[in-house]
Amino acid sequence: MLVKDLSSYLKEDREKRFAIDNILYPAEYDIYLEEHCDYYLAEAPRPKTKYCPKCFKKYFEKDLYCKDCLCSLKHISEMKRPREIRTNPTFTFKGKRDFESFDEIFTEENFIRIDDFSFSMRDFKKITRIIKRTALENMEEIVKANEIDLESLNVQEKVLLFAKSFVDVDFKSYGPELGHFEFNKITVDDRQTPSLHMTTLIHELSHFLLKEILTGIICRILDCSKNTYIESIALYMLIYSPFTELIDEYAAHTVEGRFTLYGYQDYSSFLNIEQSLDGEMGRDEIEITKSIGNTFSIAIKDILESFIDDDLRLDIKDQFLRDTRDRPNYEMLRLENCEKLTDNGFLKAIWLILSEGFIASSMNVEKLIEYEEKI
Ligand SMILES: [Zn+2]
Ligand SMILES: [Zn+2]
C-alpha cells in the first residue's frame, strides 16, 4: 500500500475546519454555515452577548428583555468595569460645633481639650465602625448606580472597586513611584503586574484610612463636625515630623504585608524614613514608633477585611505566584517589628501625636491653608 492510497480513508475534521475558517473568513463563514451545514450550526455554542442590568443573568443576542425582572437587556460590551468609574465618596463625623476657620480651631479652649484628652478605646472603635459602615454603603451605591455585576469581576477589579468606595483612584504611567496618596486621591502606576497593582492600592488606601481615623479622633475630642479645616490638620500631623511620618509609613507597610505573599514585599517605603531618622532618634525609639504604626495597622486591616475576606486574600496571593518568577526573599522579614501597644499605651501614643501635632499645626497655618485649598 502506498501513502497516496490512504486518501480513501480521509475524512474532514469539520470542527477544526470551522475553527480555522472562522478566523480566516469570518464573513463568508456565516454564509457557508447557512448553506452547507445546518447540523453544525445547531451544535455550535452561541455566545450570550446580552445581560440583564438588574439580575445580571446572561442572554442571547436575539433576546430583548429579562423574563424575571421584565426590563430590557443591555449589551455585555456596555457593562461598566470598576476602572471606568469615577467616585467621590464622603465620610462624615458629626459633632456639636462647626469651625469655619483655623482661627476658630486654635483657641485656648481647644488646646485644653486636646491636652485633657477625653478619649477612650470605645471612641476609637466607634470611629473605625463609622468608616467601615460608610465604605460598605458607598460600595453598595456604586454597584447599584453603575449596574456592576460583582460576580463577573476579577480579583484586581474587586480590590479596585472596594478602594474606590473610600477614595477616588486615578492611574498614571510615568515616574518611578508605584503609587501615592494625596489630597483625597490615590494615584497608582498602571505599568505594574496585577498583584503589585493591588498591594500598591492597599498601601495607599492605608494612608487614606489613617488620615481619616485621625480626622475622626480630632472631631471627637474637639466635639466638632468634620470639614476641610480639620482634615488639613490631620494631614499635616501625619507629614510634618519624621515621628508621625514613620508611624504612617510603617502602618501602611504592615497593612500591605497582610495581603502580600511573604518574601515579595518592597521595604523601601519606610526604610528611607528610618534611615533619615538615624541620629535624630535612638534605635529603641524607632522601634516603638514602628509599634505604634503596627497598632494602627490592626484597626486599618479590620476595616479592609470587611470586604477583602480570606477568599479574596488568597486570590491576591495566588495572583502573586502567577506574576512573579523571582524567588522569595525572606531575609527582609527579619526587619519586621512584631510588637503592638496595649490599649492604654495606644491611647497615650494618640495623645502624643495629637498634642505635638496640634501645636505644630497652629504654628504653620500657611501650610494648612495650602492643604485646605487642595482638599
Ligand atoms: Zn433580570
Ligand atoms: Zn506609603
Distance between the termini: 85 Å
Tally of alpha and pi helices: 15
Number of strands: 6
Element string (H = helix, E = strand): HHHEEEHHHHEEEHHHHHHHH
Number of self-contained structural domains = 3
Please estimate the helix content.
55-70%
Each distinct ligand = zinc ion
Gyration radius over CA = 28 Å
Features:
375 residues; mainly alpha; 3 domains; three-stranded mixed beta sheet; 6 strands; globular; binds zinc ion
What's the SSE blueprint?
Blueprint: H1 14-24, H2 26-36, H3 38-43, E1 50-51, E2 58-59, E3 74-75, H4 102-105, H5 108-116, H6 121-145, H7 155-164, E4 168-172, E5 179-182, E6 185-189, H8 194-222, H9 228-239, H10 242-258, H11 268-277, H12 283-304, H13 310-323, H14 343-362, H15 365-374
Parallel strand pairs: 4-6
Antiparallel strand pairs: 1-2, 1-3, 5-6
Helix pairs in contact: 1-2, 6-8, 6-12, 7-8, 8-9, 8-10, 8-13, 9-14, 9-15, 10-11, 10-12
One zinc ion is lined by residues 203, 207, 249, 252, 269.
Give a brief outline of the structure.
This protein is mainly α and 375 residues long. It folds into three domains: 3-43, no CATH class; 48-79, no CATH class; 85-374, no CATH class. Helix content is 56%, strand content 5%.
